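User: Hi! I'm working on a homework problem where we have to compare a predicted structure to a textbook description. Could you give me the structure for the chain below?
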Amino acid sequence: MRDVIIPTDATARFNTAVDAVVDAGRGTSGFILAHGQAGRGKSVAADQYHYQRGGAYVRVWEGWTQAAFLQRVLFEVRGKNGDLPRMNANRCKQAIVELLERDRKPIFVDEADRLAIGRIEDLRDILEMTGAPIILIGEEGIFGLLSERQKKYETLVSAYQIKTLALLGNTPILDSCVICGRKDELTAFSVKDGGAVCASCQNKMSAGSNVSLIFNAEFGTIGILKYLLNNSLTSLEKIGLDEEAQTLVRNILKSYGEYHLDIAALKSESFFMIK
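Assistant: Happy to help. Predicted structure tokens:
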């Protein structure tokens, strides 16, 4: 008998994000990254989704080799039928791709912060060849895992965030001033107002405004956010922002997510999608 799970707001957000990439179709689905401190319900939400709606669920063991990891993924993708496969890594990957091409389903990878960088690349290969959504679940260390990749991949983390904001109906306004509609001299980003602000409106903002929610759009920030939002990850993989620009973009998206999605109230539980 399985435990009875009472859905929470965090679980509902998880289900919404996974449903979106599952329903999006092969050309637009991708990664979801669910991360946070231990005990926040990430694994429970993933296991419940997998149990109720299908998919393959893999809990990572420390020190798994490429072959061991892919053997387990194959075992779960084919529905735990038979014994654990005894194939080399390449044959396992080929078999996984063949199965997912016939029956596309999400793959949940729990304790993903234990994975080596190479296993993330294996999952990316599977995603690109099949369009099957990949859901990575882990503690805060998983961000460090992704950030260990070359500097260009730090840009992808910001892309995950802004694409997920759009997915959840909170796309920031970036083509014009969110206050007056002016399309030039966009010199700031207002978290509270939901997007870019022109120089004139920035100057008119009251002294009582929460300045922590207003960022000067230095380093071409508005253009960077637009590019991250409107381009696929394939086109972003070789692009790396300099440290100052990356820091500003990261701070804007963090504040924006906390304000509009109430992520802080969810104890820093965050969900990110790669398109």
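For your comparison, note the following. The chain has two domains: 9-149, 186-261. The CA atoms of residues 128 and 142 lie 21 Å apart. Good luck with the assignment!
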